[in-house]
Amino acid sequence: MALAGQGKTKAMVGYLDIETTGNQSLAAIVPSAIEGKFLYWWLTSQYRHIRNLSSQDGRDGLNLEMLGSIRCPVPSPEAQKRISAFLDEKTAKIDGLITKKQALLEHLVEKRQAIITQAVTKGLDPAAPMKDSGIDWLDQIPAHWEVKRLSFVSQVIDCKHRTPEYIDDGIPLVSTTEISPYAIDYHTKRQVSDDEFTMMSEGGRRPQVGDIIYSRNASVGSAALVRDDRTICLGQDLCLIRPSIIRPEFLEHFLNSTACLVQLRSYLVGATFKRVNVDVIKKYMLPLPPPEEQTAIAEQVSVAIAKAEAIERKVSMSISALREYRSAVITSAVTGQIEGLQ
Question: Which pTM does this prediction carry?
């Protein structure tokens, strides 16, 4: 077995049925007076406890002394084999259900994305006369629509390229971490003073109701509409998109659509961390329906998204419940709480 001693995978254990080697972050565990698979399941059940172990010098990583101090029950060899066989079979069934649920969730997300893209590029009327957009990835659009650059329908404002000084109690600063499609997380730990906020907001950089905050790095391509007037500071690697002759809600849907992501991917730069520059964002092309149609599309898409997300939440909750059940079964089995396995 191999047990991770540090980082995000700290305390995770893997059962190996092949000959292998490990690096300095792993502890190799070779069972002697205990069934290997039983020990694997016991260590799996102790994940939280092992992960919370820390050395006296305050270091977060696990060491051999700490691992050696972990106590483990040792039932009879026959019981160890029964428990291991039971858990192999039981967890395989649960894992199969989780895999199916995850596939369903991925399908639902893809379907939701398709609904958004269809609406913002083709409209709501399937019988509407169409015309060639002149853009390969966009193909045909309704005949009465136009195609415009993003800079024609909105103002694109880059962030301040500086790292402000943070304080404990001040104005929340949003960064790429707080931006996801359609959502701004206002519960950020990064906060700035009034003076820093004034500096960071120069040049029209203070987010206003109706603005769209767009991520240029990390969560690149995520767009979230500012829906209330609470004061927030625009952090690095973001830009503000301030609609002028386009409905903000329609633009938010377009920026989060596959049609926009196709453009984004063709412009991404950076080997490890992908990012997009503001000059490129200004060049995004988008279909532009009449204002009333923009409103109708935005409203219908919002309703469809809400319904889809409600279903997705139920599936996600069922996946979480299955994972909790899996953990409970493992713990019950290795601690002798399941009748007939002792």
Answer: 0.85
